[in-house]
């Protein structure tokens, strides 16, 4: 799974996976711990909290698969800034659509191979 996640983005890291109501939910987070405040341009690496953000949703067979990004909220320490916190942004890869297709493909093959082992 760790390898598979890097197909989407090398800066994403696999955290955990759970199966909930027949859905596969994969949690990922950014390897980058810092971010640039969009309001003032200052760099910060002080984490305020994390929140779940939907990153990807697709079907593998009749199973719904969701990739959830545990996105960081960072403090902006610039006292002149109008905001005290901001959400870390993960720049979208220019070839994201292609990466997404490759990831979905790899995931479907992965599920199939598990199915074969179990069955
Ligand atoms: Zn700021």
Detailed description of the structure:
This protein is an alpha+beta fold and 119 residues long. The chain has one domain (2-118). Helices cover 25% and strands 43% of the residues. It is built from two helices and seven strands; from the N terminus they run αβββββββα. The chain has helices at 2-8, 96-118; strands at residues 12-20, 23-30, 35-36, 43-44, 47-60, 63-75, 85-87. Strands 1, 2, 5, 6 and 7 form a five-stranded mixed β-sheet that branches. The chain has a two-stranded antiparallel sheet with strand order 3-4. A hairpin with a 2-residue loop joins β5 (47-60) and β6. α1 (2-8) packs antiparallel against α2 (96-118). The radius of gyration is 17 Å and the shape is elongated. The mean pLDDT is 93. Bound molecules: zinc ion.
